[in-house]
């Protein structure tokens, strides 16, 4: 039973990572791409590691898998912040698009 749950979690994680990769192509702004990919890829990694833990529970490698999960949860936000900050220092500014209605007028 835990093997089936593990495979389901891995498949869910793969879908999150695939959708995160597609979001790179869909978003135009660097910061939108960075935000979407960071959150979605982290969530995909969580599901994949949890799936691997469920497939082979209570082994000596379980501690290593949990450490990989904790390391990923600690490093992903820091790396996203570093990339965003370096882009801002380099001069890349977020796009500030005003919302308009269908006629092109401001609401």
TrEMBL record:
Membrane topology: Multi-pass membrane protein
GO MF, one annotated term: sodium:proton antiporter activity
Protein name from the UniProt record: Multisubunit sodium/proton antiporter MrpG subunit
Family per record: Belongs to the CPA3 antiporters (TC 2.A.63) subunit G family.
Record has Hydrolase as a keyword: no
Chief place where the protein resides: membrane
Subcellular location: Membrane
Transmembrane annotation, as ranges: 6-27, 34-55, 67-88
Keyword annotations from UniProtKB, A to Z: Membrane, Transmembrane, Transmembrane helix
């Amino acid at each position: 039973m835990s093997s089936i749950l593990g495979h389901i979690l891995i498949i869910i994680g793969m879908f999150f990572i695939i959708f995160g990769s597609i979001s790179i192509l869909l978003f135009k702004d660097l910061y939108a791409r960075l935000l979407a990919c960071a959150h979605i890829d982290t969530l995909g990694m969580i599901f994949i590691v949890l799936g691997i833990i469920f497939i082979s529970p209570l082994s000596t490698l379980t501690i290593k898998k949990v450490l990989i999960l904790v390391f990923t949860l600690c490093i992903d936000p820091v790396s996203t912040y570093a990339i965003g900050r370096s882009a801002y220092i380099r001069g890349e500014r977020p796009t500030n698009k005003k919302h308009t209605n269908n006629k092109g007028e401001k609401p």
